[in-house]
Amino acid sequence: MTAVSESQEAVSAAAPEHLAAAQLRRRSAWRAYELVLWLVAVALIFLLPSKALLLTEIAIVALFAVSLDLILGYAGIVSLGHGAFFGLGAYVAGLFARHYFTEPVTGLLVAGLASGIFGFAASFLVLRGSDLTRLMTTLGIALMLAELANQMAWLTGGADGLGGFTIGPILGLFEFDLWGRTGYIYSLAVLFLAMLIARRLVHAPFGLSLKAIKANRVRAAMVGVPANSRIVVIYTIAAVYAGFAGALLTQTTSFVSPDVLAFHRSADVLLVLVIGGVGYLYGGIIGAIVFTLLRDWLSVITPQYWMFWIGLVLVVIVLIGRENLARWHTFLPAPVQRVFKRAASWRPGVKLGGGG
Amino acid sequence: MSTVLETRNLVKRFGGFVATDNVSLTVQRGARHALIGPNGAGKTTLINLLTGSLKPTSGRVVLEGEDITGLPVHRRVSRGLARTFQVNQLFPDFTPLESVVLAINERERLGASAWAPLAAHAEAVDEAAGLLERFGLTDVMGERTSHLPYGKQRLLEIALAFAAKPRVLLLDEPAAGVPEEERHEVLAIVRALPAEVTVILIEHDMDLVFSFADRISVLVAGALFTEGTVAEIAADPRVKAIYLGEDA
Predict the structure, then answer these.
(1) Domain total for chain B?
(2) pLDDT tens track for B224-246
(3) pLDDT tens, A133-164?
(4) Separation in Å, CA of A82 to nearest CA in chain B
(5) Which among A67, A104, A58 is positioned nearest to A87, based on CA atoms?
(6) CB–CB of A214/A72 below 8 Å?
(7) Which of B89, B111, B133 sits opposite A225 (nearest CB)?
(8) Domain ranges, residue B200
């Protein structure tokens, strides 16, 4: 009792700058659900070895969705062609393994670099214009790239896809196995590192300025935010991430299907974010889990009509409203809510104030 | 006194409509310069030309001796030209603390820093806390901006402009829409702005103009109608005629 009231007093008596610093620190602190998520993801390596292929797919879709979240959820740039960067990464990783070097980490970096360069060039096309023109521009870029890959059959294998290569051991040490276990660990590791970096980006001044551009571009300029250069940077980073995701797909399946550049890739990843929510990074991961499991489950029970059910789920989500789904816990009975709140605000180390 | 901001033969046309008609305005350093005029006189257009939101059809804008006519908005801000908006332009989901930290970071060229978290830039955080205290926002600094009372949002609007450490601050009707009980707080903040900051005030409230300004420019139909000290403008029968109507 006394300890609690003392610590509360200490906080309320603290100088405003300490309060301010504490508030800002809390904003970027690791949350309980993040730790749980990563622990579960690691535990699944051992608990569900038979589902490694599905888990790998989730990790790849998640990385792709996180990439889109960086531009959509933070800078507010809509895109219907984010699959372009995914597909480019997938093809570059395949071609690199086939013609140059089969070590996957090198291939991953090369694919990310290629997508990043393409993303940098494409970013100048999304600087101007409204959401509608951006949708059309990004869609156009993706369609052009898909057609290009289809026409350049001598390089990409055209409609047959690109095969005939094997991926070497990771860093020369870890062989890919038939059951996809290495592939899952590899994909999860890449997703985790990418998330660590993305977390830093969005909690740094850079991320705050992106959110400002999304929230109110007029005012953002008026406090000195150079919106264009920030958008170019984040668009490039997002393209690198999407390229990584595409490369992971190539490397874990040893094949590049022309499907990697198909329109549905760009649409699916948007759906994933609609399901998971934008602007907090984990929406991409949660959405990827729900979307992939749903698709996997529905395509087993109704192989022909699974798209219908996905569509229905989306309609329901839109009807209920994302913000209501995000605060689902507020509809629970009060005692249950308190338990959740305590769990959610728990983090290792010192307690801040009385909680409350 | 030296000139801090001036416009030279500034013209802005929207099609056939002349919104700003050959305005040559000179503002002295440290002045409290009011810009008044009836509705549609082109006050907001002139402000947008000064801040760079609009590009002039012809003419120049000069800040501290340097031609800034071609600079985009954010570059003018970093040169010390900030403004508030007649209708709040805030970040609804940000807390006041985040908003002010953002403005300070951009001013200190930390905005592109992408690794260390916000709290790691201790000087910016300390300054933000001080600024929020000065503007009476300390107790609400952790709340969502959209949940704040209008008067507090108005104060944040001014605090955001002030965080850029402007040498020239354009206040576009700072007390507009603020309920009576919160009004004195906003006005006290405006009056307490440091003397070295040049303030250009656009205002309809003549009591505020005459009590605050030391110099007044009157805009009519996009053109500079007259300019003078408060006493001169108050005594000018033509200004009275414009405000009360020519036939009154």
Answers:
(1) 1
(2) 999 999 999 988 889 888 876 65
(3) 999 999 999 999 999 999 999 999 989 999 99
(4) 23
(5) A67
(6) no
(7) B111
(8) 3-244
